[in-house]
Each structure stands twice: as structure tokens, then as C-alpha cells.
Amino acid sequence: MRLLTLILALSFCSVGSCNGQAVPEFNSRRAFSYLEKQCSFGARVPGTTAHQRCRDYILQTMRSTADHVSTQPFLHTFGQPAHTVTATNIIANFFPQQKKRVLLCAHWDCRHWADQDPDPEKRTMPVPGANDGASGVAVLLEIAQLLKQHKPPVGIDMVFFDGEDQGTSADDRSYAKGSAVFAKQLLPSYRPLFGILLDLIGDSDLQIFQEMYSIEYARPIVDQVWQTAEKLGIDAFVPKPGYAVFDDHVPLLERGIPCIDIIDFDYPYWHTVSDTPDKCSPESLEKVGKVVLHVIYTL
Ligand SMILES: [Zn+2]
User: For residue 157, how far is its CA from the centre of ligand 1 (angstroms)?
Assistant: First the structure.
């Protein structure tokens, strides 16, 4: 019995990077099935049936893994003509008794219009959001499964933001609405060690440069994540500055939470109707999931 336990523990330890703490193995196939499942509902635009079904799916998955799950509904106005619907952040806590905590987050909504589509006739159609939405959520859902089975050295809070992607280029603040609501309602006593936001990380041609707000306001976390990737030999993480992206991490940074954005902003299908699962790959989800797991389990 004892030997068996030892073997099982060792089998979760990735070669050369364990440092005594077992890091669970990221299941890329299962993660990709979470991406496909979200897309199977249709575009998860706030106010639609697809959105409701996906919310229920994320809630159900989190209730089977996390210690505590709650929702944070808010009114969200967007579109032309402008209309108001209820949007919902989903918050899941793992190991709530742990004082040291890490925040992991992603947005789960899809953009209501594909305004970057090369075909003008398609620009009023919604974005299927395989990469832009489903990819970050898929990695979090897979990590949730692993957290349940392998206790990490810190507590984890996961937030699935709604209302990230309905904005207009004229106004940064029309984006990241769910994150703004979450940041505003946070208790001042909530001080995670750091946060990691995942967005657009499913592109089968994955190259993740360092996002500029993250470098400016959370440099040590950026270094930690890219150094971990280097140790693991995952060269999709390029240790050079890339774009500055107004994303869900900005409202958190403004609340003093050092949160970085892991994002591959060079995605040819960004905000087009072609952002579908065939442009994404299980391998890309695995690269990101593996780095995040190693960062967490070797803290
Ligand atoms: Zn987007």
C-alpha cells in the first residue's frame, strides 16, 4: 500500500521541475473537450440562451470541484441599439481555510459582433469565441479538476468574468465590465499573493509575449511565469514585451492586486466569425496549463 502511494505520487511529478512538490499532470484532451463544450452552446453573448447554458455548465462543473461557488450578477448595457441584460461573474474558492491565496481568472462571454471580420456582411454576427473566451475557461476547468485531487500549497480563487468583450474601440472602459464589478465589490482584506488572467491562449500557433500593463505593475509575477516556462522548455512563452491590452487584469491592478495577463494577441481570427475550435489546439492549452500549474504547486 505504501509503495503504491509513493509510485502514484511520483507519477504526477514532472521530470526535472518538481522541487519536492508533486505537480499534477495537465490533461490536454480533457481541457480541449471543455473548450468544445462551451462552443457547442453557440456564441455565449450575454442575454442569449447559449450564454445561460454555458453559465449553468461552468457552475455545475465548479460545484463538483470547488469548496465554495457563488455568482455575482450585474446589469450590463451594450450593443447597437443599446440594451441591458443580466451578466454573471462566477466565483469559486478552493481550500478557503488557506491564508495564502492565488487568483486565477478568465472571461467566459463572447463578443456580440464580429467587427474585425474581413467580410463586412458578417460583422454584425456574434463571435464563436473558441479562443476568445472558451480557451482560458477550458484551462481553468481542467485546473479545477486537478486541484480537487491534489492539494496545492496555497488556496485558489477562480473567477470567470462576464461582460469582458462587448466594448467599443472608442472606450476602454466599455470592456472588462465583470472584472470592474468584481474589483469594486472586493473586500479590502482580500490580498492574494498574485493573480493570473488567461485570455486568447488556445491559438494552435501559440506565441505569448509579455503584456505591458503586467510588466509595468506586476513585474515579479511576469518574471516568475516566464522563467517557469523556460525551465519547462515551453518556448511559446517569449520573454519579450508585446502589446498593452486593456483586459480584465486592469481593474484588479487598480485595486492593488498584482495580476498579470497571459495573452497571445496575435490571432488572425480575433473578433471574427472564424474564431472556432479548429483554430485552437489541445497542445496550446497544455502549454499554458502546465506553466500555471508549476507556478502554483512550486510556490
Ligand atoms: Zn475579445
Answer: 23
Give Cβ neighbours of residue 258 (< 8 Å, ≥ 6 apart): 194, 195, 217, 218, 220, 221
Q: How far is the CA of 215 from the centre of ligand 1 (A)?
A: 21
Helix (H) or strand (E) holding 250: helix 249-254
| Closest of 218, 216, 202 to residue 260, by C-alpha | 218
For the record, the C-alpha cell of 30 comes out as 480533457
pLDDT tens digit at each of 299 positions of the chain? 444 444 444 444 444 344 557 999 999 999 999 999 999 999 999 999 999 999 999 999 999 999 999 999 999 999 989 999 999 999 999 999 999 999 999 999 999 999 999 999 999 999 999 999 999 999 999 999 999 999 999 999 999 999 999 999 888 898 999 999 999 999 999 999 999 999 999 999 999 999 999 999 999 999 999 999 999 999 999 999 999 999 999 999 999 999 999 999 999 999 999 999 999 999 999 999 999 999 999 99
**Is the Cα torsion angle 74, 216, 299, 191 positive or negative in sign?**
negative
Spatial distance between the Cα atoms of 111 and 145, rounded to a whole number of angstroms? 27
- Contact between residue 102 and residue 196 where contact means Cβ atoms under 8 Å apart: yes
Is residue 60 classed as helix, strand or coil in its secondary structure? helix
- Tell me, in angstroms, the distance from the centre of ligand 1 to residue 4's CA: 46
Q: Residues 251, 271, 109, 93: what is their CA dihedral angle, to the nearest 10 degrees?
A: -50
Residues with Cβ < 8 Å from 118, sequence gap 6 or more? 272
Distance 20 CA to ligand 1 centre (A): 39
Phi, psi of 72 (to 5 degrees): -130, 90
What domains sit in the chain, N to C, each tagged with a CATH number? 20-297 (3.40.630.10)
